[in-house]
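Translate sequence into structure tokens.
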Amino acid sequence: MKPPSWCIFLRSLPVGGVARQFTTLANYLSASRRVAVVTMFSHQHDPLPTNELVERYSLYADEDTNSTPAKMLVGASERLRRLCREQDFNVIYSARELANWVAARAVLREPERLLLWGHRVSHHQFSWKIKTILHLSRLVRSRVNCEISNSHRGLDAYRELGLCQGQTLFLPNFIDSNLFQPNSGQRAVVRESWGLSDDTPIIAIVGRFAPMKNHAGFLRAAAIVAEANDQARFIMIGPNAQQAKSELAEQANSLGISERLMFLDQAPAKEMPGVLSAIDILCSSSSFGEGFSNVLAEAMACGCQIVATDVGESAAIVGDHGVVTTPQDDKQLAEGLLRTLAIPRHEDIDARRQHVIDLCDPQKILEQLMALERAFFQK
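Result follows.
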């Protein structure tokens, strides 16, 4: 008997953690079963290509704009239903609120298909549009076979929203520990490109410029650190950093740390291990919304020391190998950074790396998904 075929359904494939995680999953699954990634629109220039074994489908062409967004959203369920029937997809794994609702409506009366919902945030500040989708999702949640989150707090948050009332599962994110590993050679090269010596303490925040990441709080904590340590330097790394820096640069200037702060655009994934090897402390100052922070795990795999706020799964990612502070407490965050600066970077480096390798073991993650598959189709 051939293995069940999988349809991974996402609204889109932008650059970001969700798309990277689900395309990685598709690539792993393709080694043993048929798998397709389906998006709402075709996106001819997706930046996250899957391997040649993964099929690609879209519900709408990019140029198909004759209908209103609301009508297209409602119509998406029928198109997905038709695609699943035509291609005989046995498992539908969707991610995020909009895709989850569309997927549940698509297979509402098709109990022979295994439906998995993916949740990727915890205690998020949703827009009114997404709140509406969440309300509608509660009406169809009984059709879902299992709701999967990349953080335990995410499961708690969705329970509070009236979801995750049936079978649930926590699955950490994948990280590529072969790609993300300490690299002393790249550390030297990258630091030289930044004009910083090997012994200059560097504290960085890496991620998109969004309110949940609390870059302003990072700067306030950095100002406290700068006053206590005149050697420390600070870097903000993220997509379109040069465009995003206006208000933050003004804040840094008012705090008196502008000359010790750099803004850098995020490097391509293959270059990020060198960037992470070059910094000493990776700081996550998020105030809400995080599920499983990829950059925390990737930084630890590269040997970085970690100071993170206790949001989403961050405390479990860090474990006993870093400092975890209360969200939105700038003073406590600064104290954690100063304590960490006093610890040699290479202390505990192997244990930090092994901790996240064990946590994000792809075989363990895949086996849990395969267990769901077996339990459903062997009934």
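Note: The mean pLDDT is 93.
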